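Journal club side-thread
Mid-discussion, someone asked how the predicted structure for our own chain would compare to the paper's figures. Pasting it here so we can look after the session.
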Amino acid sequence: MALSSSEVDVAIGIVFRVTRLPWTLCKIVRDCWEIDWRSFGSKAYRLRGHTGTVYSVAWSPNGMYLASASEDRTVRVWNVAKKFKTLAVLRHSHPVNAVSWSPDGRSLVTGSSDNSVNIWRVSEEFFTLSQRLQEHSRNVRSVSWSPDGSALAAGGKEECVKIWGVRGEEQVGSEVSTYDFGMARTIHASASSLWSITWSPCSRFIAAGSWAGGSVKIWEALSGKLVNDLRGHSSFVCSVAWSRDGKHMASGTCDSVCLWALKCGVNFEQTHQPWNPFASRNIGKCQGTGVVWALSWAEDDSAIAVGSSDTFVHLFDPKGLDSNPSGFLEELRKLEGHVGVVRSVAFSPRGQGPRRLASGGDDSLVLVWQ
């Protein structure tokens, strides 16, 4: 679906304040999430404001805000309830490469080419810089909060992952201030820049895509022990994403996406058995140059979004691997709207209005599909 420069399709959401949802309303909410991905993206918002490449997009946990990080040295926070009007503009001294929300939505973290990780306190729609972590010596390419909120990880050109544990929170009057971090633990990733990092859903393991060597390394976050090194990619790995149920991982390289099925799955996190992939499948090649810059799983793992250098956002069906002996998953939808490389994609949280997918790229645009 091609979007004209003036096209903006608006969806209206209604919030009900009730203590008990009637059956009809429950059905409306359920139907809103039981979606046919083949028709997804018929409506879209086109968000303008950035003047450089949009490297990263991230939804707040309540789905009410969308943050986007850009080459123009800013992070913009968009208000969903006000038709994605700009709520705040946060500034760095260098391009901002990554953005991530804390699981409780009270803090926003940004990673920049100025080698810093900034923590922004969120209070009643106001954003205040509360802490600046400066333990990196080179560009920070990726930042990620653990799902349980106990740790923050960042990586980039420094060839290592730094992990900060939350030391606690300070009580200020009747409010709790932003997080306070201790010294970072460092996990060395050999001589290779890290382009993308992601936590396991249980918050015990962390994975990173390697720019050199074409592998995905997985460590136990607390001990720093290397658990596995997933190889088989044709080139550098610039995107990794864990499925919501923890049983699969997607990794993107120069021309394809590999879907890894984990032998032990969730049981590994309980038994500490050796962890090896029993299946690695290419889910299809993107058109054009086909570099896969970004990946995101839908909240129910029913689709994988792929941001590519061919200017499209592709949606694949990860469930088709078992029924498809060729090892290629079915492409459900191809969203057309960007006019440059798509650098970031992110599905909205489940249960917060209609399903949405945000994407950002070289054309300085943020597109929100629904």
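Post-session note: The longest strand covers residues 160-172.
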